[in-house]
Amino acid sequence: MSKLQQRFLRGEFALTAEMAPPKGYDFTEALETASLLKDRVDAVNVTDMQSACLKASSLGLCIALKQAGVEPILQMTGRDRSRMAIQAEFLSAAAFGIDTVLALTGDHPLVGDCKASKPVFDLDSVGILKLLSSMEQKGTDCGGNALSSTPKFCKGAAVTPVYEPLFLQINKLKKKVDAGAEFVQTQGIFTIEALESFMNEVQRHNIKVKVMAGIIPLKAAGMARYMNENIPGICVPDHMIARLQAAAEEGKEKGIKGLPMNAGMDMAAELIREIRSRGLCEGVHIMAIGAERNVPVILDRAGL
Amino acid sequence: MIVSKAKPIEAVLTMLQGVQKVGLVGCKSCASACAVGGEKECQAMQEALEAAGFEVVGTVLPDESCHKMLLRRELKPLVAAGAEALVSLACGSGCQTVADNVKIPVYPANDTLFVGQTERVGIFHEMCRTCGDCVLGETGGICPMTKCAKSLVNGPCGGQKNGKCEVDPTNDCAWILIYQRLEALGQLHKMEKTLEDHSPRSYPQSVNVREAKK
Fold this sequence. Notes:
The complex is a heterodimer.
Chain A: H1 3-9, E1 14-19, H2 28-37, E2 43-46, H3 58-67, E3 72-77, H4 83-95, E4 100-104, H5 125-138, E5 154-159, H6 166-178, E6 183-188, H7 192-204, E7 210-215, H8 221-230, H9 238-254, H10 259-277, E8 283-286, H11 295-301
Parallel strand pairs in A: 1-2, 1-8, 2-3, 3-4, 4-5, 5-6, 6-7, 7-8
Chain B: E1 2-6, H1 9-15, E2 21-25, H2 30-33, H3 39-51, E3 55-60, H4 68-80, E4 85-88, H5 92-101, E5 106-108, E6 110-120, E7 123-128, H6 144-147, H7 174-185, H8 209-213
Parallel strand pairs in B: 2-3, 2-4, 4-5
Antiparallel strand pairs in B: 1-6, 6-7
């Protein structure tokens, strides 16, 4: 059983973080970052060419993390692979002891940095989960042929709590859970109210899934404004932007660098602390977007 | 309708390098309707080729440029007039049907875009990916294989914002349209289904309706 599953089973607050493989083949820095996360989180998501920008593969860094004693979560999108290639990746992952995966549809190549790459989307997030569940139950591949050995994974998916119309997210979440998703990590949430109203919907529809609230530590007011305008599902409230802005002004006055990032870490820690103390969901998933070194500090401040 | 647009004339001239006598083949069907292969466009092509020093030995305008038997007869005068190459002003299917009937090179004057709807003259929208397994009865008459940039079968992705697509914010999100249509039709329960997308698996198809009737 995966470390994350054990945590859920014990009813303890689960923690995951997220990191991206480099745009290159040198994993030294990624492994240094991972070593800071080791023993602080239950598992580390490794992104699969996030935002459709070319990186080393998720499987590659997942193997390196596993060998370094860090539990990886293999993210798998349907953007670049047919169902055959997806299943082949999962089999290889299992061979290295990787037991936790996250199924995603993936961003379209046209929003990324290799725009001529052919979009595949043979399977979407639900299709990938179904493929895994069918493999586990029947011991077969995507063509119905018997496998010589069949792995079992702890399966996750993503969900966007702030979405209009929310019916469509809930409808798809139901499909994901029916297809075998045991946990979901949410898009970054910035207010307790956003998480609460989403959790109410999940409960109202009687969806049985472990929810990990997505936490994005903000670095600057500009970043927050940019995300509000450009990233679907992101809604940073004005008072947070004002706090980052005030920190920037204070920093300028006193000649101190890094105050907005520090304020962002405080706000992330406050959210985590409240989510945990009120038991709003089963855990949090921290997406530091390049600032993974801050994750242990945020956890310290959140009392974790 | 098969919607096409004209290639730049320079591209046609480049393909015709080394040739002197050229025949033109238009199409009275789709290519005429989207103004790339009708009488007017054939006339304009003739003028452009003549201005570039080519001899246009003749023009034919079949009812359907994609009809093999029809073309066998229609193309004869062009070959008899000594054409060294033909320029097809039809869609890709028309161009290939012309090429199937002659032993000289055939060059396309158009780029074939999609199976589409004419909103009004000159405005076309892609509507069908010809996947061979129509799901429109489940989706309120809106095709997610065609209208969703990822051909998703389980509802919208997280890239939808204000009802628009992450790939092109001027495009509507197909699944938001489907949701709205199904809601208006009182068929929202159909959203619970997973559709089958057969388009990625498609390979060159043929159909024999005569045999099916027997």
